[in-house]
Amino acid sequence: MDLADLSASQLVGMIERGEITSTELVEACLARIEAKEDTVGAWAHLDPDFARRQAANCDELHASGVPTGPLHGIPVGIKDIFDTADLPTENGTVLSKGRRPDDDSAAVRLLRAAGAVIMGKTVTTELAMYAPGKTRNPHDPERTPGGSSSGSAAAVAAGMVPLAIGTQTNGSIIRPASFCGVVGFKPTHGRISRAGALALSRTLDHVGVFARTLEDIALISDCLMIHDPADPDTKPSAAPRLSQIVSEEPPFEPRFAFVKSPIWDRAEPDAQEAFGELHEFLGEQSEEVPLPEPFDNAIDNHRKIMCADLARYLSGYVARDVTKLSDVLRGMIEEGETIKAIDFNECVDMRVHLANWVKSLGEEFDAILTPATCGEAPKGLNATGDPAFCSTWTYLGVPAVTIPLMEGANGMPIGVQLIGPRNDDARLLRTARWLVNKVAAEA
Fold it and tell me: Is the pTM of this model over 0.85?
């Protein structure tokens, strides 16, 4: 048994029962990193001795009998745009080289409080946008892992850590999770605090998580979904109890709204065929539902908000040395500088109308079923793949999860994306688990 291959939920129980120590787990993860990092390149900053010291401290606490947190002794990868007081945070750009924050970001602080071992900082694309970092797809190093949370997705897929966190402003959690064959979860906008993380767009930025099982997704999300006054979009609310709900059977068999969306022709033929087969497999539990006409402009609206906000939030980097930014990022910032305030505000207002349609759909269906990506991870490392199948749902701020249920023509993973109404995160994850079990039972 290689501890690096086990789920976080399994490992938590083993540590609690004294069957293994956190030190043994961290050593297993470090051994996996040593074996695969030269090929995968998932880590921006990794100090093995720092990870070992944290693990030793976890073991001392456990031996002393004091109460421990829900992630006690579990290694977690941190995308290198979340501030960490004891590790560099360089945001994937030479303009932040050597940057050492004084404080932890809210997400990192909550992970530490839950007992997690902060394993290291995972690679991000440049300023969490499109210019790739060094990471390669663990299934095929000639293919992209996606972005911008490339290192987090790849590290989990390669067994380097059981859990990792990332962010999504367009497709930066769902796309790399799909390409790397892991579970990726983007909660409802504002459910996890973004305080202390690189800001690109208040309207679009989400914090999300990666794992290899839905139970693990719920485990880490429960630790992070806590109101934080430092993020004005988090709201005081009762604990979501995701771990409890995801383990329950739905009161009735879920129904799925199969949505091809206006960009169906951008999906690869093998992906189209696979989704058609899944729709047919689900029978009466799946119904094809067309998106109403206002959705035709959703992707364009998303881009206007994103580019305009990039011009605002990244102005300091532009002023410092615009020549150090990639051509693609400079182009988006320049595009954002031309967007009129009236157009920006109209795009923001339309979000509410479209999100309400998803809410109404949720009265009849448990989840929207749609592709996570156009298909398999593309060959080549100069781009991170098309995020179009994520853009609409990021724009609306609704929860999204991708589960690795399919393979493409080349044997690479293809994720099935499920969407729910805002704040319906628990039902969405329970529905996803039902679908995983349904497919597994028929395999």
Answer: yes
